[in-house]
Queue: 3 jobs
Job 1
Amino acid sequence: MMVADGGNAESQYTSVVDGGNAYTSYMAPTITVLDDDDLGPRVQVTFASFVAGTQTITVTRTVGGRAMPVRGGVRLFAVGGAVVIDQEVPFGVPASYQAEQFDADGNSLGMTDSRAITVDSTDSWVTQPLNPNLAVQVKVRVPSTDTLSWESPGDTIWTQGASVGRVINGQRSGLKGVTLLLRLLRPADADEFDAMWGGYDITYPAVVCIRTPPNVPLPPVLFFACRTPQRVTSGANKLVQYQLTGDEVAPPAPGLVVPSLSRDDIDAAYPTRDARAAAYTTRLQRDSDYTLAGLAT
């Protein structure tokens, strides 16, 4: 029997309270694969609970030891839970998701548990990172991946008296000076593919996200910069092919994205605020109702 003496300031509590583990386990995210012919394979990452005091979270995806913030999941409001759609999940390799929790002052409260998933797909998809609603399925032409090049920037130095030089170089770059040939499955997709590069009234960075299955010898998630995409239409069936010459680059800032589901979409689904409130039991349930995505447009 343990006795706690609260009446003596000098008393000491010598027993050990063992909760089973010094590490408190918080719920890992629930991951749901979404797949259709419009936007391609993607995942919905839902966090239902956090450590007390959590105000915002930053969601991270780890693939092959490389951790990257999930687009749209940077300092995401998290009171009552949070959900993010990852349109850049790779195909055929494990992807692990977890979130860092922050209080209202921006102080870190630690990481949630992680959960991994492998999205199996034999297709290749191109999306505009800042507007994931622009997505087109393509075929990567095999000849365009026969020759791939990287660069380790630096110099070769010949010192006095040495018969061979010494290389002084930095970290190897990503793909550089590569020409990719992408064929559209449907000629009608050409307008959407063209829209990924912007237009007269909208500006996007000249960067697209290309996701390919493991049998294509490219990084599973490739951010590719091309300032002069070339469109070629040929044959009786008007097949459309794009030639993209450029480099592997860093993705646009992950905090920037056009959300798939907007408040206007939710408002458009219900005639009154009371009807909207009656349709959901929690804010998280409302904010993850992606069946309403695009309803307001």
Note: Residues 1-25 have pLDDT under 50 and may be disordered.
Job 2
Amino acid sequence: MKAKMHSILAGDNQLSGNEQVRMEMQIFLHALNSYPERFARNPSLSFEEYCGGLVQSAKTEPQGRG
């Protein structure tokens, strides 16, 4: 799964290595915290599927830099 996340996040984003790792960590921690509630609503959804969906969402959202 790590390689899959890396390839998804690498996409068109021009992130430095450190920025990409931070993003991956934030997505994973968010998934870890929010998965129990999601699992309660949909027990057939695996953590890997849920986390992968969050990664896809993060890839499509515009990255704000300020």
Note: The helical segments are 2-10, 17-41, 47-60.
Job 3
Amino acid sequence: MERLNVIRQEKDGKWLAKCDLCQWKTSESKRKDAENRLSNHINIVHKKGIKGVKKQKPPISPEKMPPKTPQPIKEH
């Protein structure tokens, strides 16, 4: 599915960014700011690219880690 997110310059010179997935929009003075806000909105609200991260197991706390023991010394 092709994205139709819109970033366009309004008559007052500001840049309007609109999300095609919901009714979110913002108006910024610079095009780069509008692009960044739209990208952040999609990443946060629509969780683009975060689904895989949520499925990972939480890291083990240092207290629950087994103690590190040195390897046994091999005698010849």
Note: The chain has a mean pLDDT of 78.
